[in-house]
Amino acid sequence: MNSETFFSERTHDIHRAERPTRAGFGIRDILLLILSAFVFALLFIASSNIYAAWEDMTAAKAMHANAEVGELFLTSAGALATERGFTNTVLAQNSIATQNSISRIQELRRKGDEALSSALAEVRKGPDFKGKGRLLARVRQDFEALVALRSEVEAQWSRIASERDAAVARRWVPSVTALIMSSQELRIAAQVVPSTALARTQIMLDLRQAMWVIAEYAGRERAVIGGKIAAGKPLDGDTLAILAGYRGRLEQSWATIEAYEKRDFASANVLSAIATARSEFFVTFEKLRKEVYAANADRRKYPVSGDEWITAATKAIDSLLNLSEDIGAAAGTYADLIETDSLQTLVSSIAILLVALAFGGLALWTIVVRITRPVHLLTGTMSRLANGELELTVPFVSRRDEIGQMAQAVEVFRQAGAANRRLEAEAEENRSQSERERAHRDAQKAAESESLQFAISALGAALAHLANGNMEHRIHSAFAGSLDTLRVDFNQSAETLESALREVGGNAAAIHTSTEQLRSATSDLARRTEAQAASVEQTAAAIEEITTAVKDASRRAGEAGNLVARTRDQAETSGSIVEQAVRAMGK
């Protein structure tokens, strides 16, 4: 098994063992949870900001449209109020109207009519609201009535006071006032009031501003008329024009108050104060005011003294001031609501911030403690493993998260390295064993070769001794292994050869002895030829025996030669066998 196979199998075993045992939240799960919390928090904050921005944008657009349309209506109402005052002054004076007055009135008409036409056009194309058609029709009707009345008024300009139609003069102020009031009512109704506390607070602030205008111009009227009554002087044309302007601004602002009454979010305290102010100022005090204006028109004595006028007017204006205070209290209520909403928003924002900080701290702790530090330790462990320290302990192996998986992977590397090192040691040991075996075989071959060479040399020397006639030479040094059989065979062959030669030598000695005996017998025979004739036959018999002995000696000598030949053949055969053994060992 190589290291790669071990690594693959070990990795497979670790993953297979890890899958069923993993439990709890891993680092990825924690980070995903934190990320999800951040995303949800961001979505919540973004949604809240988008909703708030959308409300603010919608409110801003509505307020901008209200401001534009309101500016047109207010411009028209201001021009109409001024036209009302100037025209009423012209109709009240004894002389005919001057060209300067006529030009000024015409300029006021142009300015007021253009502003009113533009305002009506904006209202028509604007969003629908309750009573839109009715109010537009009423304003159009009042404007047409005023246009028709203007023609009649123009006819009176060239006449002196005694020749003028008094009915035209009496219809003039109410007609202009009716158009101012209907247009202002339309202006207020056309305003789109956002449902936010801030927008309603702004409405209350506008109402309070309107009440300041009402109280201011009511106070101015009180002072002017009170001065004239106290001095016993009539209200001349210029004064009436000024007072008409004051009244126009007052009625214009009061239209804002009356429009507020129709709002579904109107404060009950403010509505009660409006009813009181209407009763005190526009009903009770209005009767006295009309009596004063009627006495002045009829050139009669004023129905009240200066002090009585101031007292009655002050009481009526006090009701207006009380209304202003109630409007301020309502504005304060809305301001408290805004403050409460702001506080709730602040608290929720702080809570979200704290939650975000908590998750951020948890994320930081997770990254530093659960990720960065373990990764740093695992990096150091990998470096030590790379340096060959395979006996160390890999940390975090028991963790059941991604770090644990990394640690287990590092453990696989460590085990694979250890296995590889063990395999290398085994391979080195095998190589050493092979080298030792090879050296042993080489030594054995060398020893065998040396033994064979020794055997060959010994046999050669022994054969040389035999060739030289030394039949007693023997090989006493044992040969190695199976070669010793050659030595034994050689020694046995030499023993046999020596025995044969000894026997041949013995036969030769016998022949020599017989020959000596024959020579002696022949000498005796020569000496005793004659004497021993009788012994001829014995001698012939002896010669026959000698002949037979010689034949036997010759035969035995032949056998000895054959033995020597066989011995030589066996030695040659042994040499061939030794050479074949040497060649076989060499192969």
Number of E-state strands: 0
**Helix count from the secondary structure assignment:** 12
**Content of β-strand:** under 5%
C-alpha termini separation: 36 Å
Specify Rg, calculated over alpha carbons: 75 Å
User: Could you state the order of secondary-structure elements as H and E?
Assistant: HHHHHHHHHHHH
What would you call the structural class? mainly alpha
Uncertain residue ranges: 16-23
Give me the secondary-structure topology:
Layout: H1 3-18, H2 27-92, H3 99-125, H4 132-157, H5 166-190, H6 197-231, H7 237-261, H8 268-297, H9 306-386, H10 402-467, H11 484-528, H12 536-586
Helix pairs in contact: 1-10, 2-3, 2-5, 2-7, 2-9, 4-5, 5-7, 6-7, 6-9, 8-9, 9-10, 10-12, 11-12
Description:
There is one protein chain. By secondary structure, the chain is mostly helical. Helix content is 84%, strand content 0%.
List keywords for this structure.
84% helix; 587 residues; mainly alpha
Quick synopsis:
This protein has 587 residues and is mainly alpha-helical. It has twelve helices and no strands.
